[in-house]
Every structure is written in structure tokens, then in C-alpha cells.
Design a protein that fits this description.
This protein is α+β, with helices and mostly antiparallel strands and 138 residues long. Helix content is 40%, strand content 25%. A 5-stranded antiparallel sheet has the order 2-1-5-4-3, with helices on both faces. α2 packs antiparallel against α3.
Length: 138
Amino acid sequence: MAVCVAVIGKDNSPKYIRCSDETAALQFHYKVHTSIDIIEEKLNTGNKMAADVRELFLGLLFSTEEHKIFGYATNTKIKFIVVLQSTNASLRDNEVRMIFRKLHSAYANAVCNPFYVPGDQIQSKGFDTAVMEIMGVS
């Protein structure tokens, strides 16, 4: 399924990045950081129109020969980025939306932990397990 999952804070600092292939982690970090600009652009154009009906799922941010990068932004400006293989053409928008819903739910559970300090890196076993499930790694 996903080859990289990232959670970016409202100040555009990475809070969590997990890649299936650790040897190509630097390449995925670059793709994640490149997509932050596209997310910011989409969020700013959305504010000019109607901020109340803003869709959380931002859709396909950009595509390369190997990967497709999708974005999602919460109401609190936390951004989720998922990198999928381009060869996985069977994934439809609804399935990608479900991936983001699971990720958002796992994120909400992780930050609701009373021992989590807001703004820190996410170091939750439950969140890690949910991300590994999204990535298809058991």
C-alpha cells in the first residue's frame, strides 16, 4: 500500500515520518518536504473562497514516475502526507480517503494521550502500529 507516511506540524516541522524502505528514506523525506509547499498553496487558495466548507482531503498533490503523493490537512493545520506506488493504479479516491481517516483517527488517539506534549515528535506504539497497518507491514 503506502511506501511512506508523514505527519507535519502546523509550523511545517515533521512530527512523524515512516518509510517502508529505510535505504530510500532521504528520497522520501525530500518528496514529503516538497509536497508541503503544494499543501500550503492549496490551503491558502481555499481560505480565499470558503473556509467553512474546506475539504480535509487535498487529493493528489503531485505524481512522479514511481510514486503518487496525496495530502490531507486537519482543521488544526496538521498535515498528513502519504506516498503510494504509482504501479498501484487500483486505488481510488475513496480508498485513499479511508487511509487518511484511519491515519487521522490514530493521530487523534496518539495526541489525546495525557503524557503527550503538544508539538513534540509522535512516539506512540499505537500510532506506529496503525501506520504499519496502513503501509501493509505487519
